[in-house]
């Protein structure tokens, strides 16, 4: 039995969507099970949350299952202490034919003091799939605010860079 099926008709699925339509937030407490020996949250847990939050935004935009095609480099600006609240924000910045760039921002909050810090940002590319080995077209993104238009523009440059990198790696492998 299929675990899912497309429920949105194709015309509706491919209708342009606003950035706010895909905006997603997930939060969880940093728990001791995910601590490194210094008592901070391990980076792998943050990466996991980034992938999940990215996939939620991409799925909201595509109204189909998605797979992670690539993750641009990630930096960890501050450690997250066990007991702090980790909040991961994600939106689709731009969509092309079957792929989408999702911007993800990780914040941590000290619930005792209320101090909030930006700890990580990342860009991920997701591809919409049909679950039968095929890829699906996705709706265009309709940026509204100046910030959304700037991200949309920059996403185009990042995509060129990613595809150049992919082609270069394929060439090196073929040698
Ligand atoms: C990602 C995947 C679907 C791409 O399939 P493919 O047949 O190589 O696809 P194509 O070369 O036709 O690319 C499809 C789209 O993905 C984009 N893409 C492919 N590789 C990419 C990469 N490394 N970075 C960014 N975009 C990429 C292409 O530009 C294209 O976008 P467009 O349709 O919007 O123009 C396929 O490689 C795959 O299924 N990989 C495994 C994914 C996975 O298991 N992820 C982790 C668990 S979810």
List the defining traits of the structure above.
binds coenzyme A, 175 residues, 4 helices, alpha+beta
Secondary structure: elements and pairs:
Blueprint: H1 10-13, E1 17-18, H2 19-22, E2 24-29, H3 43-62, E3 66-71, E4 75-76, E5 85-95, E6 99-109, E7 116-128, E8 141-142, H4 146-174
Parallel strand pairs: 1-8
Antiparallel strand pairs: 2-5, 3-7, 4-7, 5-6, 6-7
This protein binds coenzyme A.
Coenzyme A is lined by residues 67-70, 96-99, 125, 127, 135, 162-163, 166.
The share of residues in helices is 25-40%
Terminal CA distance reads 43 Å
Q: Quick one: overall form?
A: globular
The largest pleated sheet is described as: 6 strands, antiparallel
Class by SSE composition: alpha+beta
Oligomer: single chain
Question: Cα-atom Rg, whole angstroms?
Answer: 18 Å
Secondary-structure element pattern, one letter each: HEHEHEEEEEEH
| Average pLDDT over all residues | 96
User: How many strand segments?
Assistant: 8
Give the CATH superfamily: Hotdog Thioesterase
What is the CATH architecture annotation?
Answer: Roll
Number of domains: 1
The distinct bound ligands, ions and cofactors come out as: coenzyme A
Low-confidence stretches: none
CATH topology: Thiol Ester Dehydrase, Chain A
Number of helices: 4
What would CATH call the class? Alpha Beta
Proportion of β residues? 25-35%
